[in-house]
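Reviewer 2 asked us to include a model.

Predict the structure of this chain.
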Amino acid sequence: MHFEILVEDQSGKKALDILVPKIIGDDHTFNVHPYKGIGRIPKNLGGKADVSKRILLDQLPKLLRGYGNTFAKYPAGFPAAVILVCDLDDKCLKAFRQELLDILNACDPKPETRFCICIEEGEAWFLGDIPAVRSAYPKAKHAVLNAYVNDSICGTWERLADAVYKGGSTALSAKGWQSVGAEKSQWAEKIPLYMDVTNNASPSFAYFRQKLLELSGSTG
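Predicted model (structure tokens):
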């Protein structure tokens, strides 16, 4: 199986470049394509998006149509799928998933696609594996980590910062979004190295893992 994985930023790519091979092994192939932010779904699904602006949801209708056409030209017996990985943030999960399905259903031909949504943010997948966080950051505050409720809407990246960054999320936020992004990038490089993909307490990570395993014909 070949996977085309769409993510909203470079941090997501760094994490998935490490995590995906742990899930699907060496018998399958994948590319992770990072975008410059999540954006929003356009009202006109058939409209033309500005391709110079690599904003994930803005581009999604065009991307899925393109993958549908491309996959249809692949030789028989070469299965491929699109995996969208993005943050829920403050959106309604049910409504957001339906909007994504509407984009997919408007495609003809329709690419094999799965939507994997981090609840509430990508850092939830890291916090789903507390031992991995502690291995990457031995000085992490255990009380903060132990108080986290998996996939809760709680300011997820802030919770991780409170556990591993000196001065917590308040000190990090005071440095500005560029510093926040740089720190998130470090988390994405360090924590996944220690993650056990078969034992993660985040339901949204478990869903992502299961979709990859189902599509690749693996078990887990």
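The radius of gyration is 18 Å. The chain is about 50% helix and 10% strand. We have added this to the supplementary material.
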